[in-house]
From TrEMBL:
The chain crosses the membrane at residues 17-35, 222-239, 277-299, 469-487. It comes from Methanimicrococcus hongohii. The keyword Transmembrane applies. Keywords: Membrane, Transmembrane, Transmembrane helix. This is Uncharacterized protein.
Length: 496
């Protein structure tokens, strides 16, 4: 008897080991996503620098900003950090941090550019929002500022929303308001309006500028909660349905048995647990595919693209003018009754598309779209309804800085009224530029074209999280199916 029992001294307890592995995998996945998505930091310069650089790199070129912390200030439980960059002496930026469950700070919004005083809108509620006014090494001539709004669009009368004295060159002020700042008025110590000395409609194109937002921490934390709860539930299922311990010798003998399709089919038919496993796998596969298709649902046809653009923007009666593929993305040039522009579609694993970035203009325009980010890295020049007079264009750096040589980034001839030209980005220190349009004789006719418009992300952050959600659901479903598959046939054991 002792000899027969000796082979059971070492047992292979599959379900309990699997339960422990699932919990460890869930925590590892949460930790990885936490570091990758939230860029946590402590309130120290080195940590904040690393967090800010990584946060902005999610949307901009990786080496675009090398932040140098100027000031930190906690207001209403949130941390605001102003920064500059040694490579760009006139750059001024601010990042809003929120405190996480572990008391670390997480960046949720950043604003940066070339301006003496700026405002960042954040913390949007139903009727109110916060405006963060900040300055870095503010010019000593500026003693006071006022936020100006126009309350009635039909009346040009301006109203002062708020104002404050500037007592230090570096400052961060926060206001809760119902309205949005339209512009600033700046005054010297004697009360003279000196706004025109600082806001004159020009800017230095070599200074990076932009706004980056994560949409807050709520989406991330919801995903962590789903992963943790799903992991615990499936781990509990494995732990509670632990089969009879199997010796290592029996496991080796089982492995030697060849599984043919007919044997597997027979096992599914005769074993209720394996039948459940097959049903769970089929259900999870179908659900994951349907859910993924709900996110990536646009066909690369004109009609489907037009409907998708209308749903994603406020464009009316969209007409697709041209499409071009680049690195898995579909670039769609369109015009409509109220605007024209470019929409970038991302291709999914099901070969369907979903819009996630856009730029819009009026009619008869030529403009450059700077898509500099980890997800794509290119500059796109587009034109809609171009007049035959427009023969060529140039994208030039430092157009407003007359003391520097005007560097030509890109140039090309215009052969069609509607076109899309794609370029690799120009990457010296500062690669932002302005576009100039010329006729066949080389005369500058830029003023005849509209190249001012809006743009931004449509749903890139949420699309990323939704894709991860599909992956998590599929993996957890596979684990659950596997748990049923390895569960022994209790009825058969009882009969034996």
């Amino acid at each position: 008897m002792a000899k027969n029992n000796s082979k059971y001294k070492k047992v292979f307890n599959k379900n309990k080991l699997t339960a422990i592995a699932i919990i460890l995998i869930a925590f590892a996945a949460i930790f990885y996503l936490y570091i990758d998505l939230e860029k946590p930091a402590v309130n120290q310069p080195d940590s904040l620098n690393y967090s800010i650089s990584g946060f902005i790199s999610e949307y901009m070129q990786e080496d675009l900003i090398h932040p140098k912390i100027v000031q930190t200030q906690i207001i209403d439980g949130e941390l605001y950090v102003t920064f500059t960059d040694e490579r760009y002496p006139n750059l001024a930026g601010i990042v809003q941090f929120q405190r996480g469950w572990n008391l670390l700070w997480h960046p949720v919004k950043a604003d940066f550019g070339d301006w003496p005083i700026s405002v960042m809108n954040t913390n949007f509620n139903e009727d109110m929002h916060s405006e963060i006014v900040y300055g870095i090494q503010t010019d000593s001539r500026i003693a006071y500022y006022e936020s100006i709004v126009t309350l009635n669009e039909n009346e040009p009368e301006e109203t002062v929303l708020y104002g404050e004295n500037i007592t230090a060159p570096n400052f961060i002020h926060k206001y809760e308001t119902e309205y949005y700042t339209f512009k600033f008025h700046l005054y010297d110590v004697e009360g003279n309006n000196i706004t025109a000395d600082f806001f004159n409609g020009t800017y230095n194109d070599s200074i990076p500028r932009g706004t980056v937002s994560s949409g807050g921490l709520g989406n991330y934390r919801s995903m962590y909660t789903v992963i943790l709860l799903a992991g615990l539930i499936i781990a509990w299922f494995f732990w509670a349905n632990d089969p009879r311990p199997i010796s290592w010798q029996e496991k080796k003998e089982t492995k030697r048995e060849k599984k043919t399709f007919s044997k597997i089919k027979k096992e599914i038919t005769e074993n209720p647990a394996k039948k459940k496993a097959a049903m769970v796998f089929a259900a999870v596969l179908i659900f994951s595919v349907l859910l993924y298709t709900a996110f990536y649902s646009t066909l690369p046809t004109s009609n489907s693209l037009e409907r998708s653009i209308e749903r994603s923007t406020d464009a009316v009666n969209v007409t697709v003018l041209e499409t071009k593929k680049d690195n898995g993305d579909l670039l769609v040039l369109f015009k409509s009754d109220n605007k024209s522009g470019l929409v970038t579609f991302k291709q999914g694993l099901n070969f369907l598309y979903q819009p996630y970035a856009y730029s819009t203009n009026g009619d008869n325009y030529i403009t450059a779209h700077y898509q500099i980010a980890d997800i794509y890295n290119r500059v796109i020049v587009t034109g809609v309804d171009c007049d035959p007079e427009a023969a060529s264009y140039k994208v030039i750096q430092n157009y407003y800085d007359t003391e520097k040589e005007q560097i030509i980034h890109y140039q090309n001839k215009i052969h069609e009224p509607d076109f899309i030209d794609i370029y690799e980005p120009y990457k010296p220190a500062g690669y932002w530029g302005v576009i100039r349009i010329y006729d066949a004789d080389g005369n500058d006719i830029t003023k005849d074209y509209s190249n001012d418009g809006g743009g931004g992300w449509l749903n890139y952050s949420s699309l990323y999280l939704k894709t991860k959600l599909c992956q998590v659901i599929f993996v957890l479903g596979l684990l659950l199916a596997w748990g049923y598959w390895i569960t022994p046939d209790r009825k058969k054991e009882d009969e034996d």
